[in-house]
């Protein structure tokens, strides 16, 4: 792995945010749209919106020096769509499990509430997430008994809303920001590991487990996206 701060010139330059055209920069999902042969967009139809949202968060919260190294993951998100119910909750729980050990306490509290609500510990929400993902999140939650007791007391004071919608988007945003702003020296690596696991999970759901995605080569992107 290249040392932090050094990026091979054979990687495409990735930038934060949405860009009108590649001359102004490219984010992770805009590169995916180009590789998939779709119109230039940070929300291409080739990728499930929940995974695309997580990829945009990781892209934007990574440091400028580390962001180009995310590009090698881009081919792996192409074709991952229509993956069935529960995916947003699954990606949110995966993100929360990554973030909980390093996030600041205020975000840990939000994550514990989010995990507990999603897996049915607090409230009446019923997730369609895969039982294995739920079990992993439940085991993680059990390691934070003090926070779990605080969250149980907090949620009991909330009005009974009977909410039936996922809070996955909010959990993903809290998780990625919690990692990016954590007081640890390897935030970029942790964000990349999260995205890598999320893509692998989606590829497994798509029946692509064990199939390596295409390798990103300069000839695939240099006609449109400049080098890092």
Produce a short descriptive summary.
By secondary structure, this protein is mainly alpha-helical. Helices cover 47% and strands 0% of the residues.
Helix proportion: 40-55%
Low-confidence stretches are 1-8
- Count, helices: 9
Shape, per Cα inertia axes: globular
Distance between the termini: 16 Å
Look at the structure and give the mean pLDDT: 91
Order of helices and strands: HHHHHHHHH
Characterize the largest beta sheet: strand count, sense, and whether it forms a barrel. none
Tell me the fraction of residues in β-strands, as a range: under 5%
Number of strand segments: 0
Alpha carbon gyration radius: 18 Å
What class do helices, strands and sheet pairing give? Answer: mainly alpha
Describe this structure in words.
The chain has 228 residues and is mostly helical. The protein is built from nine helices and no strands. It has helices at residues 28-35, 49-61, 87-99, 105-118, 131-142, 145-156, 168-180, 187-205, 218-221. Helix 2 (49-61) runs antiparallel to helix 8 (187-205) and helix 3 (87-99) runs antiparallel to helix 8. The longest helix has 19 residues, at 187-205. It is globular. The protein starts with 27 loop residues before the first helix and ends in a 7-residue tail after the last helix.
